[in-house]
Specification:
globular
Length: 133
């Protein structure tokens, strides 16, 4: 975990400082884990890097994370990436934070994503109810 930790250190310092000043919890972040930028090569372990980064960010209780799935405005499948696992890492430490995704969603894909998120929410609520009784 040393490499992702080192690579995320500067970003975490910036976000930690900003979140300390933002008492109303209005801070959000947009991530594009696999979008090619300025001819930069794809990270050799984008999943590991962003899993670590988002896990650390979840502790800051961000208002939202906005994730571009695939290449911004382009193909969704340019590199293998598990966005559902990334979402779980964020929501595990920040249930109230919004998870926003985009890039080429059809109506059917959007409905499927909404239903999956709703199922997760319902499972969370029913688990809390079971704990309380």
């Amino acid at each position: 975990m040393a490499v992702p930790k080192k690579r995320a250190r500067c970003h975490m310092k910036v976000h930690e400082g900003h979140c300390r000043r933002d008492r109303r919890r209005r801070t959000g972040l947009r991530l594009s884990p696999v979008t090619p930028v300025n001819d930069a090569k794809q990270d050799s372990d984008a999943q590991g890097l962003f899993d670590y980064f988002v896990e650390q960010l979840s502790a800051l209780k961000l208002a939202f994370i906005h994730v571009i799935e695939g290449a911004t405005g382009g193909a969704r499948d340019i590199a293998p990436f598990n966005y559902a696992a990334l979402r779980e890492r964020f929501k595990h430490g920040n249930e109230q934070g919004a998870w926003i995704v985009n890039n080429g969603y059809t109506r059917a894909m959007a409905l499927q994503a909404w239903q999956a998120a709703r199922r997760i929410w319902l499972l969370s609520v029913s688990s809390l109810s079971a704990i309380r009784t």
